[in-house]
């Protein structure tokens, strides 16, 4: 038995994907009949329960997930994605001379990355809101957090829909990624493929055979940065909160999310040296709890980067202590540093934000930006988004999954717009 | 004073000192040596200043900030004027990466030679023996630069009464067995406790498998085979240490107990860790090992796996007193090895996964794979 199926009451072993996909396919009409209002009510209840249940309330990122699942947030997201009205999901609505409806694509196969424990929920809930049945392939075999999340979802309820009923439209599995036949089964079953992961994984999944009409949505490897501008640094009021927010973005998901800042550019100013800014960051890093554990590879990478920065007379470093808890590397090179992750941030001093524009490519996903002047902020955002950046947000919000994400309105890509005339 | 104490350590028995005594002795020596190194090697001075507690606060060997071994690839870490550098040791380097460059002055070179002799004496005895190098003469070409392979071959050469090279280097660096030399060596010296040395992957692929294919065995019952280098490629070929030892021994004609694996690196020439009769590795008197836990970097407990850090009092020309590797070991125990040697003892487990490949054996394997 090569496939582990994740269920609210535990795991089940099965050998292939196709029977699971066929069962889901048969349930598509039932999901299409569920009113969008019922789905929103159910997720709202799920949102509350996540923060109450002892097995989910301590999961990394669950507070954000809970907020994201709130009815008001999801409604706003649907309005943005669906031409102003979620009702398109329930049937035809007039729009100009047409009647339009947003129909599900069908079965969505999704291959998840392992860096953010709650990521499968964002992907899965988006697919369900568009009334697609879905197969979710997890990255990690021992994803016990997922069992807890499914358990709480199964216990959630709304007037017209129970969580246990909704879970009939979802199958969550894990299998070794090297099983090419299973990947092919998942791909053949899909009307839409959602891929989260690194470049190699995306290439491999995209190359799998698929139906002619199958669409693909790829969330590939990205790098995120921060920027603190001169005018904001000249003003001391509130700066501490700004840096605290950056440190929260760095610490979340052990800095493995593509939206986590790796390099933060600091504009030269008359008030604070780079070292002084780094000391402000250090004050907030010192308040973080120890990490629960760390693998050997990341430990060694942290030791290496600390030494590399410490030996160099053009660079500087502040570290938590001998343990690989947090590290602040400083230099004046206008460059994106290779991400080390796990609370390792590179502060680079620059004369002006314009110096970093040549470095901006579509590889950069999110910029956590702090400007003293709103006009400057908009000028900067215009320039970097033109070059490929997907999101410009204040620090503290960098890892908040939202719509659009990576330049995509996900739910709008999970529906087929159909028309009725006459 | 420090020089005299280092000299005493090199002169004495290598594995007799209980761990606590050794730690006390080494920490006091290393405080002085690291302070002096920081004065003479500016990058190392910055490293200690930025990342470590003040030297006078060091109470345990584990308190010394360990310098990652890869730093020798990125920086020229030298504590003496160029005129005093007598040799530059180069690590093997995988494609696309720079080799480590270790600057050795006369004192360091002298100590490294003395150290290797002192510890190998306890493993293979002090008498000179016929030496078959399981490599080509090109590995020890004269010059002011020497590879890790060359340094090890030369170091063991101090125990040789005669030296023969078992392989020829082909264009492109491939090695080809010189069967005439090999057969002649065993015919002439097989009964005279010969000493053989080569890098593990080369020994296996170019010596053991090639001789087996030709059905050659040599009946050299008193032979000792020393080998060093990564197990990674052998593990990938599902060759265990036990199988390596038994098949090598069967072909040479010696006991599997005299097939001795040692752990060492170009950044710590002279400080090698040879398998004891119980299959463990011990640090000699002038060096020690700290096996550090991930994240906390604290020394692990018995039975736990950690990153290997090697400490040594030998270097005077480069900051090699506390070097942390990208290799993992399990700490087996302390002062109570069945072989009778004192100090903490460990077993190498593997390289840190996804880390850059290091070691000559692995480089060789990589080039063969490409072909």
Protein described:
The complex is a heterodimer of chains A (422) and B (371). Chain A is of the alpha/beta class. Helices cover 37% and strands 21% of the residues of chain A. Chain A has 2 domains: 3-220 and 406-420, Aldehyde Dehydrogenase, Chain A, domain 1 (3-Layer(aba) Sandwich), CATH 3.40.605.10; 223-393, Aldehyde Dehydrogenase, Chain A, domain 2 (3-Layer(aba) Sandwich). In chain A, the strands form 3 sheets. Chain A has a 7-stranded mixed beta sheet with strand order 2-1-7-6-5-8-9, with helices on both faces. In chain A, strands 12-13-14-11-10-15-16 form a 7-stranded mixed beta sheet, with helices on both faces. In chain A, strand 8 (192-196), helix 10 and strand 9 (215-219) form a beta-alpha-beta unit. In chain A, helix 3 (36-52) runs antiparallel to helix 4 (62-69), helix 3 packs across helix 7 (144-155) and helix 12 crosses helix 13. Chain B has 371 residues and is α/β, with parallel strands linked by helices. Chain B has 2 domains: 2-91 and 276-351, Roll (Luciferase, domain 3), CATH 2.30.38.10; 110-263, Rossmann fold. Chain B contains 11 helices and 17 strands. In chain B, helix 2 (19-40) packs across helix 3 and helix 8 (200-213) crosses helix 10. The longest helix of chain B is centred in the N-terminal third of the chain and has 22 residues, at 19-40. Chains A and B meet through helix 14 and strand 12 of A and helix 3, strand 1 and strand 16 of B.
């Amino acid at each position: 038995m090569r496939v582990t199926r994740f269920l609210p009451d535990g795991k089940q072993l099965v050998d292939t994907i196709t029977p699971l996909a066929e069962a889901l396919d048969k349930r598509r009409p039932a999901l299409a009949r569920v009113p969008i209002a019922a789905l929103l009510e159910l997720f709202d209840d799920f949102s509350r329960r996540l923060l109450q249940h002892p097995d989910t309330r301590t999961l990394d990122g669950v507070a954000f997930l809970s907020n994201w699942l709130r009815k008001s947030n999801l409604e706003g997201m649907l309005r943005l994605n669906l031409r102003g009205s979620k009702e398109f999901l329930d049937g035809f609505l007039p729009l100009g001379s047409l009647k339009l409806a947003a129909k599900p694509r069908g079965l969505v196969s999704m291959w998840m990355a392992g860096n953010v424990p709650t990521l499968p929920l964002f992907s899965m809930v988006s697919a369900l809101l568009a009334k697609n049945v879905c197969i979710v392939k997890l990255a990690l075999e021992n994803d016990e957090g997922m069992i807890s999340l499914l358990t709480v979802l199964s216990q959630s309820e709304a007037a017209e829909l129970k969580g246990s009923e909704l879970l009939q439209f979802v199958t969550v599995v894990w299998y070794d990624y090297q099983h090419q036949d299973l990947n092919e089964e998942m791909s053949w079953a899909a009307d839409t493929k959602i891929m989260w992961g690194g470049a190699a994984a995306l290439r491999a999944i995209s190359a799998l055979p698929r139906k002619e009409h199958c669409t693909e949505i790829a969330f590939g490897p990205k790098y995120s940065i921060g920027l603190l501008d001169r005018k904001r640094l000249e003003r001391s009021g509130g700066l501490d909160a700004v840096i605290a927010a950056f440190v929260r973005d760095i610490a979340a998901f052990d800095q493995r999310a593509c939206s986590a800042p790796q390099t933060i550019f600091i504009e030269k100013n008359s008030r604070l040296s780079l070292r002084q800014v780094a000391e402000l960051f250090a004050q907030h890093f010192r308040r973080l709890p120890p990490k629960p554990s760390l693998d050997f590879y990341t430990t060694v990478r942290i030791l290496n980067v600390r030494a590399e920065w410490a030996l160099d007379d053009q660079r500087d470093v502040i570290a938590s202590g001998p343990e690989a808890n947090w590290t602040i590397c400083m230099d004046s090179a206008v460059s994106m540093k290779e991400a080390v992750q796990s609370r390792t941030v590179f502060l680079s001093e620059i004369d002006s934000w314009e110096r970093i524009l040549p470095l901006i490519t579509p590889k950069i996903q999110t910029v956590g930006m702090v400007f003293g002047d709103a006009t400057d902020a908009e000028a900067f955002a215009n320039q970097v988004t033109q070059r490929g950046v997907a999101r410009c947000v204040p620090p503290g919000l960098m890892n908040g999954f939202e719509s659009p994400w990576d330049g995509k309105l996900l739910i709008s890509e999970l529906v087929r717009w159909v028309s009725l005339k006459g | 004073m420090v020089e005299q104490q280092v000299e005493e350590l090199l002169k004495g028995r290598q594995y007799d000192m209980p761990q606590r005594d050794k730690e006390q002795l080494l920490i006091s020596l290393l405080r002085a040596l690291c302070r002096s190194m920081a004065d003479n090697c500016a990058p190392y001075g910055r490293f200690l200043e930025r990342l470590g507690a003040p030297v006078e606060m060091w109470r345990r060997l584990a308190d010394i900030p360990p310098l990652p071994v890869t730093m020798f690839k990125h920086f020229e870490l030298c504590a003496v004027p160029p005129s005093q550098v007598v040799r530059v040791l180069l690590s093997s380097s995988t494609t696309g990466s720079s080799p480590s460059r270790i600057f050795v002055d006369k004192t360091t070179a002298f100590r490294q030679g003395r150290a290797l002799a002192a510890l190998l004496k306890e493993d293979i005895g002090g008498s000179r023996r016929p030496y078959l190098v399981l490599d080509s003469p090109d590995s020890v070409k004269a010059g002011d630069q020497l590879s890790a392979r060359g340094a090890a071959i030369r170091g063991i050469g101090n125990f040789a009464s005669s030296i023969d090279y078992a392989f020829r280097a082909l264009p492109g660096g491939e090695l080809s067995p010189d069967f005439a030399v090999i057969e002649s060596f065993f015919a002439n010296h097989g009964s005279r406790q010969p000493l053989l040395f080569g890098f593990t992957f080369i020994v296996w692929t170019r010596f053991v498998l090639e001789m087996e294919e030709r059905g050659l065995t040599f009946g050299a019952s008193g032979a000792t085979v020393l080998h060093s280098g990564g197990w990674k490629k052998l593990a990938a070929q599902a060759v265990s240490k036990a199988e390596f030892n038994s098949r090598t021994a069967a072909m040479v004609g010696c006991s599997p107990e005299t097939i001795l694996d040692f752990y060492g690196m170009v950044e710590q020439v002279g400080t090698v860790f040879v398998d004891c009769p119980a299959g463990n590795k011990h640090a000699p008197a002038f060096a020690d090992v700290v096996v550090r836990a991930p994240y906390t970097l604290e020394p692990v407990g018995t039975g736990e796996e950690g990153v290997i850090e090697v400490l040594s009092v030998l270097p005077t020309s480069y900051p090699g007193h506390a070097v942390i590797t990208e290799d993992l070991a399990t700490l087996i125990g302390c002062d109570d090895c069945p072989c009778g040697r004192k100090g903490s003892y460990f077993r190498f487990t593997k390289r840190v996964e996804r880390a850059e490949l290091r070691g000559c054996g692995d480089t060789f394997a990589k080039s063969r794979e490409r072909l």
